[in-house]
Amino acid sequence: MPRTTLLWISLGLMLSQSFLWSGAKAQISEQDMRRGLAGQSAYAACKMLHADYSQERADLIVEAAIKNNNWESQKDWLKSSQATQTIKLVSEAMNQDCTDFNQNSAQFVPAMEAIEAL
């Protein structure tokens, strides 16, 4: 797996968090929006798996990211099979703190490939 894939995912997660916290509205590509949405959604799904977050709380995390990052144009993409599969793989590849990836996870390589395909 190329290190650039990990870099893109890490940057996507960090950028989406920094945009979320700062309220910045940047012009980004459709692919970057989808990576950000996948990252935020996977984080929320991971929290449901490991921190007993409710579906409602997870939905609020994703909704806030969409609103704060001006990702409305890609909101419907989250319902696609590509999005749901990517989110599932990425959330299962994250560590139990949902702060990074567990590179020993069986889902790690498929998750990286799914992100790369966005």
Describe the protein in words.
The chain is an all-alpha fold. It has one domain. Helix content is 66%, strand content 0%. It contains 5 helices and no strands. It has helices spanning 3-22, 30-50, 55-69, 81-93, 108-116. Helix 1 crosses helix 2. It is globular, with a radius of gyration of 13 Å.
What is the number of helices?
5
Unreliable residue runs: none
Approximate helicity band: 55-70%
Distance between the termini: 16 Å
Radius of gyration based on Cα positions:
13 Å
Number of strands: 0
Average predicted confidence as pLDDT: 85
The oligomeric state is single chain
Proportion of beta-strand residues: under 5%
Q: What is the domain total for the residues? A: 1
H/E series: HHHHH
Biggest beta-sheet profile: none
- The outline comes out as globular
Q: What structural category arises from helix and sheet content?
A: mainly alpha
